[in-house]
Specification:
heterodimer, A: mainly alpha, about 70% helix, B: alpha/beta, Glutaredoxin, about 35% helix, about 15% strand
């Protein structure tokens, strides 16, 4: 059944909800810019001067970057669902499976400086990105899936659209894109390292 | 030879560790700056906005105060939920009577069959995109003059949520140019439960005797609405 209409939560708690929504949206966009920048750097590595410096930074701190982004997404997601009352739909849960898993394993990997984690995140993040992309399309084109709204939490319902286009699944997508970019950067470094080691031998 | 290699390795590891520390600091600074900017912008631009519940103290003569939810009284047996496939068990059953108010607080009753007219009840949720698509279809149906003369159309606002899009439903209906009768469901959605609503939009067609002729859920094209409405009103196509 539909969720009960509770009291106005927008001013309750430690932070104004609308401010937090906008805050999350801006952070997500910043993360997206970082992720896209990393992807561009990967494409033009060794061909443009800034790319090597950028990728050096990303590779050196990539594990913590992945950990911070996914943990931030996890905390934000839990805040919106548990504190604000935005009940997650079916597709939200699929994205959560990928995001929460990456958050936990990347934390352990960052502590151990285990760069092999990239092989796992590069599998999980694209799955999450596929789901969030479909979810985002569904938000704009609800008839893609069905022509009826379910009583409980339909995936077509949009809780908020910050700046006119940033929704919860869009923010998740930003995080997944950046995780993919950082994972690729780490994996390429490993490949370069192993190639140079082989050449030395 | 081996000692030299070990020394080189140690030196390399030391340099790498120092570089990592430097990198971490850079990343930390970037994160702090981004978080700071995002926080300042969001607090600065969204800090003072609040949502208010639209409840009017103005009472319509013989009615109650305007509100997005109204008290609903149901008389008669509730209809079973519409199954996803197969025959509808509600067809042929008497539709229950709903007594309540519209969003403006005027007393309204959905009492199918009481005046010999057929009834079409449309359950709508303001946040549901499919309901938003369906209302223009219903308006088009009306503009084309396809409504049978002995059919009453009533829209029931249900499943309303203050934290969702298009709140409040009273303003939403005006914006969507809803010109049919309206009925406000209660917060407990008693009107929806009485008619076995299983999704939004939800259309119930009732004949002049007060018996259900058909129910459907989701977006319905003009042609199908016409067919179902005519069947309820006893109009031969």
């Amino acid at each position: 059944m539909c969720l009960p209409n509770g009291p106005d939560t927008r001013q309750n708690g430690w932070v104004n909800q609308e401010a937090f929504q906008l805050f999350s949206a801006i952070l997500a966009l910043a993360v997206l810019v970082g992720g896209l920048g990393t992807l561009v750097a990967l494409v033009f590595e060794n061909r443009m001067s800034w790319t090597s410096a950028w990728l050096t930074q990303v590779r050196a701190t990539g594990l913590w970057i992945i950990c911070m982004i996914t943990t931030g997404a996890m905390v934000g997601s839990l805040y919106f669902s548990e504190k604000v009352g935005f009940a997650p739909c079916k597709l939200c849960w699929y994205q959560r499976i990928a995001m929460f898993s990456i958050a936990i394993i990347s934390f352990v990997a960052a502590l151990r400086n285990d760069k092999n984690i990239a092989r796992y995140t590069i599998v999980l993040a694209p799955i999450g990105l596929l789901v969030s992309t479909y979810h985002y399309l569904l938000e704009w084109f609800p008839t893609l899936e069905t022509n009826v709204c379910s009583l409980d939490v339909p995936c077509t319902a949009v809780w908020f659209r910050e700046l006119g286009f940033v929704t919860l699944c869009f923010m998740a997508g930003c995080a997944f894109i950046t995780v993919i970019a950082v994972s690729l950067a780490i994996m390429r470094e490993e490949k370069i390292d192993s190639t140079s080691t082989n050449q030395e031998n | 030879m081996a000692q030299n290699q070990r020394k080189k390795k140690q030196k390399k590891a030391g340099a790498s560790s120092a570089r990592d520390n430097g990198n971490l600091k850079v990343i930390l600074y970037i994160v702090l700056v981004v978080v700071g900017i995002a926080g300042a912008v969001s607090i600065g631009t969204a800090g003072g906005t609040t949502k208010t519940t639209t409840v009017s103290d103005v009472t319509v003569p013989g009615g109650v105060a305007a509100a997005e939810f109204q008290k609903v009284t149901t008389t008669g047996d509730a209809l079973p939920q519409l199954p996803e496939s197969g025959d509808d068990p509600a067809v042929g059953k008497a539709a229950p009577t709903l007594t309540g108010y519209d969003l403006a607080g005027r007393p309204t009753t959905i009492d199918p069959g009481s005046d010999g007219k057929a009834t079409m009840v449309v359950y709508l949720a303001h946040w549901c995109p499919h309901c938003n698509y369906e209302i223009p279809v219903l308006n088009e149906w009306k503009e084309k003059g396809l409504i049978p003369p002995n059919l009453r159309v009533v829209g029931v606002t249900t499943g309303s949520r203050e934290d969702q899009a298009n709140w409040p439903p009273s303003k939403w209906l005006v914006a969507k140019k809803w010109t049919f009768d309206q009925f406000a469901d209660s917060e407990k959605q008693e009107a929806a439960a009485a008619y076995g609503v299983g999704g939004y939009p939800f259309l119930v067609f009732i004949d002049g005797m007060g018996n259900v002729t058909s129910r459907t859920s989701g977006e319905v094209p003009v042609e199908e609405i016409t067919t179902r409405a005519n069947a309820a009103a006893g109009v031969v196509n």
